[in-house]
Amino acid sequence: MDGLVAGYVIAHCAADEGEILNLGVAVAHRRHGVGRALVEHVLAALGARGVRVVYLEVRESNAGARRLYEALGFGEVARRARYYRRPVEDAVVLCAAIDPAGVSAKL
Ligand SMILES: CC(C)(COP(=O)(O)OP(=O)(O)OC[C@H]1O[C@@H](n2cnc3c(N)ncnc32)[C@H](O)[C@@H]1OP(=O)(O)O)[C@@H](O)C(=O)NCCC(=O)NCCS
Q: What CATH number corresponds to the domain at position 47?
């Protein structure tokens, strides 16, 4: 497995606000905690940079990702109608607060 990418997460931040832009785990590595570890890591990294609130968008039908995010403290705060293409689908906007100790919690 050395040298192979099992997953990745991309986020950015400005001042006290962060956003997870993308998260992906290779099919062969799914359901082994990689996605959860990546999100926990990025939340800690954002928290260390002073971020206190983190947003992301996820397809409405993406039950697996939504369950992962909700288990880590994200809650739905908005919807963007017909946000995605191929296929067209609404985005659910999720948000979590990060306290200074680095723990996320629903707003
Ligand atoms: C979503 C994704 C990143 C999850 O990565 P992963 O490494 O498989 O996730 P984990 O193993 O850390 O899962 C943690 C928890 O999330 C939930 N979960 C993850 N995938 C799930 C699925 N397919 N169905 C149901 N629940 C799921 C479960 O509660 C899981 O805990 P459990 O395995 O103990 O039941 C991965 O499936 C993926 O890359 N999907 C395609 C890209 C994508 O949808 N990215 C998110 C865009 S916002």
A: 3.40.630.30
